[in-house]
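Training component of the fellowship. As part of building independent skills, the fellow (R.M.) carried out the full modelling exercise for a liganded target. The chosen ligand was molybdenum atom. The inputs are recorded below so that the supervisory panel can assess the work.
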Amino acid sequence: MIDRDSEPPTTTAKRRVVKPTPAELMEDTGTGLAYGTRPDRLPGFLTPVDRFFVRNHAPTPRLDVTTWTLRIEGDGVRRPIAYRYDDLWRRFPLVSMVRTLECAGNRRRLFGEEQGQPFDGVSWGRGAIGTAEWTGVRLHDLLDPAGITADAREVMPEGLDEVRARRPLPLAKALAPDTLLALAMNGEVLPPDHGYPARVVVSGWLGAASIKWVGRIEVATQPLRAPWTLDDYVIINSDHPAPGIPITGTPVTSFVELPWPAQLPPGPITVRGRAFAGEHLVSAVHYRIDDGPWQAADIHASDSATRREPGVWVRWQFRWDASPGDHVIRVRATDEQGRTQPDRTPRNALGYCHNSVLAHPVRVVRSPS
Ligand SMILES: Nc1nc2c(c(=O)[nH]1)N[C@H]1C(S)=C(S)[C@@H](COP(=O)(O)O)O[C@H]1N2
Ligand SMILES: [Mo]
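Fellow's submitted model of the complex:
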């Protein structure tokens, strides 16, 4: 049996996001809190806001910027500060950067199928990944006026949603030049579901590090404890028993921009997709049709939307003369350190970081039904 990308959810949970999530653009995971981008609905290098995946742990909060403040505090700063929304726009240099966000649970349903046993947790298909141009202020520039102490170690942004989502970052990652407090996404003020008025964007790390609806940032001289590094977003396996290891960067992965399963007419076509390697660079993408040889796909080197850089996906493509019948497309991306997508992902208890080479089913028929 072929499982479909957008298996209709068995329960129709109440929607707890703001933007429309039509089935032509997004995959409903059935939770009311998590909607994936359909991989076959990517018109350009960036993922448009209308289809960018959403992952909430509580309903999207509606925040009012006339009363909203951002507090910087904790024993790792000498002078706690509170910023208003206008301060963020006016007092600091604005920076724009293209970055990909991927949820650590992306492809969990496929991971469960590979293991022959479903995982608990959001049953994602391939859609919990997206790329946007984020505009905002460097976290470094915001923290600096508070006077970071010499012994500061961790920085923890906290959300104003019901779960007060928070996750500590090591000081060095928080101060990296490409760690941003984003105020805008693809040239628009941040939409409510993506963290309005301000969200963190942590380059190359799992989506859960990029806290939305930030209201407070704690700087601490001691390691901070939070549910998302203690109970969730950790790798628990035989090498690392509970509480496991908190996930940071995500491993090299790729996907084909076709529905699952796909149906195509016979003849020459261009098969397209994306590859992403977290904090690393994608150095190669190979593909294989059925039992044929592995061949190099063409990585778009001339994307004017972005330079090729770590933290950003690449587009790739190849030409294929599709003959009638059932076929399987496999794609394997490799990062600059030579790490490549495995045939099987070693099991971990919570079903994170699935990056196996997928056997993408394609039916080639003369008159698609
Ligand atoms: N405050 C808050 N921030 C959050 C979350 C959340 O539930 N609350 N979800 C996280 C997770 S798990 C992911 S994958 C990303 C998803 O970002 P997006 O909804 O903009 O795609 O946001 C992260 N930031
Ligand atoms: Mo996530």
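The panel noted the following from the submitted structure. The mean pLDDT is 95. The longest strand covers residues 325-335.
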